[in-house]
C-alpha cells in the first residue's frame, strides 16, 4: 500500500514538472498544460485517497477541474490578485474557456486509463 502511494506521489510531481515546462517552452499548445493539469489532479486525488475507487478519483478530479474553471467566471478583487501571482495563475487559471473543460475530460480520462492499465494496484 505504501509503495503504491509513493508511485502516485512521484507521478504527481512528474506531471507537475511537465505542466510547468509546457507553459515555459514556446511551441507547445496551451491545451497540453490543461490536459496535464487534469492528470495532476487525478493522481493527486489517488495519492490522497488511496483506498477509494479509481472511478471516485476520476469523478473528484473532474469536479475539481470544472469547479476551478467555473470559478474563473468570478471576478472578485482578491481573487484577481491571487490569479496575478505565478502560483495563483497556475492553480486558478486566468479566464473561462469551454475548451478547457474538454481538456480536463481528456486529461482525467487519460490518467484514469493509465492508472487502470499500467499501475499495479491491489485496491479497486
Structure characterization notes:
- The protein is mainly α and 124 residues long.
- It has one domain.
- Helix content is 77%, strand content 0%.
- The protein has helices spanning 2-24, 30-48, 54-71, 77-83, 86-92, 98-118.
- Helix 1 packs antiparallel against helix 2, helix 2 crosses helix 3 (54-71) and helix 2 (30-48) packs across helix 6.
- The model has no long low-confidence stretch (mean pLDDT 92).
Oligomer: single chain
Shape: globular
What percentage of residues falls in helices of 4 or more residues? over 70%
The domain count comes to 1
Which segments are poorly predicted (pLDDT under 50) over 5 or more consecutive residues?
none
Average pLDDT: 92
Instruction: Provide a count of the helices.
Output: 6
Structural category: mainly alpha
Strand content: under 5%
Distance between the termini: 12 Å
Q: Topology as H/E string?
A: HHHHHH
Major beta-sheet overview: none
| Cα radius of gyration in angstroms | 15 Å
Quantity of strands, as a count: 0
